[in-house]
Amino acid sequence: MMTYDLLAALALFAFVSSITPGPNNLMLMASGANFGFRRTIPHMLGVALGFVFMVLLVGAGLVQVFDAYPVSYTVLKVGSVVYLLYLAWKIANAGAAKTGAGSDAGTPMTFLQAAAFQWVNPKAWAMALTAISAYTPDHTLWAILVVGVVFGAINLPSVGSWTVLGQQMARFLTSPRRLTLFNWSMAILLVASLYPVIWPH
């Protein structure tokens, strides 16, 4: 039974976990700075709706598949690290690549790319697993749907604020040197976000 207290706690968890720095937010800030808010909208929607879909599948029992095949956790971990390193490289070179015609490094992430990224995003997995285990005590379909709706309502404006922050920072990134420095800083922070994955406590 989803009580008012449990719902309030879920909303707080959704806000804190969605607004704090992580791979999604760092990439959205970089995209906002490089491509602007409007061109980053598909990326934002992919993050928000992709994560809701992930929560629903995890709640429906997907986590049991991973428990049945423990090696899948290792595969997911390796895949996450490799793909995040690739994305960090793309962000680091985004400024220079934007001037190169036909280079995919100079284009914002699409809706489907952002949605698919949630499945190799360590923070998204931690958020989804915690949300389902802590806030759906009876694991009913209704409770799982409530978790998905709450995250959908809170996640989108939260990640959107990072895009706006990046867009505002673009005012100070008017020279190629500044933009390159910003993109490399975002890439380094994205790699740093892998620390809990590579060296778990």
Model description:
The chain is mostly helical and 201 residues long. The chain is 79% helix and 0% strand. It has helices spanning 4-19, 23-35, 37-68, 71-92, 94-97, 111-117, 122-135, 141-169, 176-192, 195-198. 38% of the residues are buried.
Quick summary:
The protein has 201 residues and is an all-alpha fold. It contains 10 helices and no strands.
List keywords for this structure.
mainly alpha; single chain; 201 residues; 10 helices; 79% helix
Q: Helix and strand succession?
A: HHHHHHHHHH
Largest sheet: none
Helix content: over 70%
Q: Total number of β-strand segments?
A: 0
Contiguous low-pLDDT stretches (5 residues minimum) are: 96-105
Q: State the separation between the terminal residues, measured CA to CA.
A: 33 Å
